[in-house]
Request: fold
Amino acid sequence: MGRWIINAAWPYVNSVPHLGTFIHLLSADVYARYLRLRGEEVIAVTGSDEHGTPIEVEAIKRGVPPKQLTDRIHKQICDLLDAYNIRLDNYTRTESPVHIKYTQALYAKLYENGYIYTQNVNLPYCEVDKRFLPDRFVEGTCPHCGYEQARGDQCDSCGRVLDPLELLRPKCVFCGSTPTIKSSTHWFFDLPKFRDRLYTFVKENKQLPDNARNFSLRWLEEGLKARAVTRDNKWGIPAPFPGAEGKTIYVWLEAVLGYVSASIEWAEKSGKPDAWKDFWFAEGTRNVHFIGKDNIPFHVIIFPALLQATHEPYILPWQVSSTEFILFEGQKFSKSKKIGVWIDEALKYAPAEYWRYVLIAIRPESKDANFTWREFETHVNAELNDVLGNFVHRTLTFINNQFDSAIPNPGTLDEEDEMIKKEVEQAPGRIASLLDGFQLKSGLAATIELARRGNQYLSEREPWHLIKTDRTRTATTLYVASQLVGALEILLSPFLPETSQRIREQLNLTESRNWSDSGKFRLEGGHRIAKATPLFHKVKATEP
Ligand SMILES: [Zn+2]
Ligand SMILES: [Zn+2]
Reply:
């Protein structure tokens, strides 16, 4: 048995997540469910990332205090996670007192350890709005790739982390005027001190996917710069350094610490306040992050450096499952341009379970994926409904109608029956090896493939004809098919927990089971099942 910390990228709560950011929460949920079925010890944590300039911009636009905005969206996300069956051990927020306290203590420690120093810096300043313009308060052209809507902290096009003064043709996001330059004292984290250790960490971590490894090595080879920890913003966590009154900590440099603080909060809530150390301070714990490729620098470089700077025995990320982007009908998601689907609206088009299926089926593991309504329809109608739903339903209704709802006692298994048996036996190992390699998409496809195999088996056997001439062979066929349904009940449960639960109820199963039980023919002849009802219905691809 192993210990795991499963982390999903913290949704930034200027709005509810769209499909492209929700995929990380969903992946973490699928993975945590899978590990639990395998008997592993797991904590799965994340929360709402609510500080920073975009929230302030949004709050100013709406004329409300930032906290009022994030309170509302945080609550909305909690309800939506429930609706999508995302069951994490702790979904918290960066305004949580535990997070604030942890962040301040960590930076006080870094100061004590000599990794924080002050420097006067020139910053863009808007004379019209009378404020400094850090991060996303300023936009301009990226000096590296020429993208024209690069923000002061990062370029969305090439992914590089930026300093606001590097932007060409900068503009204040509030009034559009060209900022002047003004000096302010800021506190810096001495990131370059960690360059060699980080290089070894990235080189030696064999788990990291190519996109994370290559991006990080390139950045480390280009050379690291000290990062400003403080900001002149009011909305954020007050900086704990002597003389830093009125300054707050840069949102990215505190939100990544949420993985630890959310674990501490989980431990406190479960009445074992030190239990988080059994995970974070235990060599051998596997720390997995489900994030998008745009977040690689903060998870592979900055977060590990912050943990190392404490001189405490933190484990570093073991795996950063950094997916490519999901595009929407060929374009980037954009709230302002109304391109995309957000997870609250998505439920108007189809039930949550259908979204769970389609999102994992298109999970962008090696290249960008393109969400289209047509493809959504195909995945739901031709796979969920016609393959999975159809196989389970026709097997169980046949048993309802022809065998008085009792799993038939089989005769001798012939070669074809034995082949199905063998496929069931091999399924948990085969699918586990895909999931162990973080290939969630292939793991799901292999599961659906079993249902396809079941359909094929039934079509070849034609029990609806066979029953008129050979009741024993029919009994054997339905016995075998029902075992396949039993395997699917377990194998599907990380991906489609509600469907799995419904199959479980229809099979009338109550005893607990684990992942490897899916390889067994575990339904006994004579076991009574419940009445079958269809699992899915077809959807139409047009937007309502
Ligand atoms: Zn760029
Ligand atoms: Zn301005």
In short: The longest helix spans residues 373-402. The longest strand covers residues 116-126.
